[in-house]
Amino acid sequence: MFQRPYTVVLLVPTGIGAAIGGYAGDALPVARAIASCCDRLITHPNVLNGAMLYWPLPNAFYVEGYALDQFAAGNWGLSPVHQNKIGLILDRAIEPELQLRQLQAADAARATLGLNLTEYIVTDAPLGVELRISGAGISWGTIANPDSLLRAAEKLISQAGAQAIAVVARFPEDIENAAQENYRQGKGIDPIAGAEAVISHLIVRTFQIPCAHAPALNSYPPAPQLSPRSAAEELGYTFLPCVLVGLSRAPQFVSRGAEEQRGGEFKTQNSKLKTPRPPQSPTDIWANQVDALVIPAKACGGSAILSFSQLGVQIIAVAENQTQIQVPPEPLGMKVLRVNSYLEALGVLVAHKAGINPSALCPAISSIRSL
Q1: Which has the closest alpha carbon to 8: 329, 312, 349?
Q2: Where is region (Disordered) located (predicted)?
Q3: SS (H, E, C) 307-349
Q4: pLDDT over 60 at 149, yes or no
Q5: pLDDT over 70, % of the chain
Q6: Helix H segments across 120-233?
């Protein structure tokens, strides 16, 4: 009997201090485990990026956060690809030696991994990244020159044929010492994650193509008390390799409007850019094909989560993954299955895929009741 592919979305919102997924790719083991028990896993760079470390998952879809919101709302579908041609944007604020490290990482990805990159481009003005932490303990940020970022992306798409964009922006070194040390010790929040999301959201929203970001930072002295969850970011001079690997097979986005599917026009502030769109295909994935969503139990207020809750998706809320925000599902009218850990969530997914009610696996089961 034919059964459609069992599809799971794994979300760990960025910059909220998640106990698992709030550090350098530390949710990657969760993603690997879930990918082994489903046919398709949809997740985002915050889960799969481990700086110098990454893990190829053939059935995983690497989808930026803004695009995930659009996907969950039913506005965009995901179109699988064999490979993307990746354009690389470097912030003009990056010093020459640090820029050289990024270019060497790009060349290494081309020579050692066989990835397909276009020429790179340096922005015509420094991006001017600024970092902020809200009173609620959430990291966010701004960029002073967003137009410079968009002009660079437009050139890579129109002149070099880029199908995905990797951005390396210079991040400030004057991050609050206490916040940075807490992060390196596996406590608190990632102080740069919120600003990274702003950068990728801007490009994805404007050009409707995959994008991810890697910060340019000087290396820190070795820390004897370094947390294993933060260690991936200490291994080299650049965070770019995992981004290039993720973007190399990130799905393209298709819209329901026929014009956008076959070459819609997207306007920036400076020009009108035509970006080819693949036609709709039977292999495209839409939100109504998602079977299960796995989230931290008290991080339920995001746009994608709220959209999925309206679709009858089985939502699994993991209590063990504590976050700085406290938005449980019940006040939002959201029906979820609460579990203690990701290990327990894996058992629920296996039962759900097999068409088994998880309560049937318990020693006591209640009798059927009259309506």
Answers
A1: 349
A2: 256-282
A3: HHHCCCCEEEEECCCCCCCCECCHHHCCCCEEECCHHHHHHHH
A4: yes
A5: 85
A6: 146-160, 177-184, 193-207
